[in-house]
Amino acid sequence: MNARDRLIVGLDIPTIAEAEDMVATLGDSVSFYKIGHQLAFIGGLELARDLARDGKKIFLDMKLLDIDNTVAKGVEAIAGMGMTMLTLHAYPKAMRAAVEAAKGSDLCLLGVTVLTSMDAADLAEAGYAQTPEELVRRRAAQAREAGMGGIVCSAEESAAVREIVGTDMAVVTPGIRPKGADAGDQKRVVTPFDALKAGSSHLVVARPIVKATDPRQAAEAILDEMRQALWPANDA
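The chain above was modelled as a monomer; its predicted structure follows.
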């Protein structure tokens, strides 16, 4: 994959019209978009279908978690929408149900390990005894055993996760900030260059692009930083 195939722009934007304008502004610089809760509940699922029909790849960030049957039915429906990636929380029963439901489709299922907005204190408050890295490692191993397509984790844990999941699974990392950018509400952030060097396969970038004065220029700058981390054969 080249840099353009690895960059996922998060359409964390308040209206469908603004999201459509952003896609038009970014043009052919970006081929992969993330649609999450903010857009999903105001028409974003239709936008996702439209973008997929236009040849864009879509990462549907729904973070599913429910009883097995409900997860399975949701995955079946999303697989029929032409989506490229879908997230669910990396709980073993949910992952096994999702993998079974996605059989025969091209949908890549991603297990969310520990949110990048959470640190050790947040996990302790939620009742977890493990550190973020310990919990990420455990859930990465469980995702591999369940047959998931990839993992979502902080780029700080990418190297450890890559050791666990091997070379075939995707390692998708949000919380990416170009050098010198504001971390915002993310507590574990990494630059695009360092994330790829650590073993990430895909980078999710939202605010540094969609909130930029010139979004296309911001995207191109991030792509340039990513290209510096990739060997020439993978950046045609």
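The chain has a mean pLDDT of 92.
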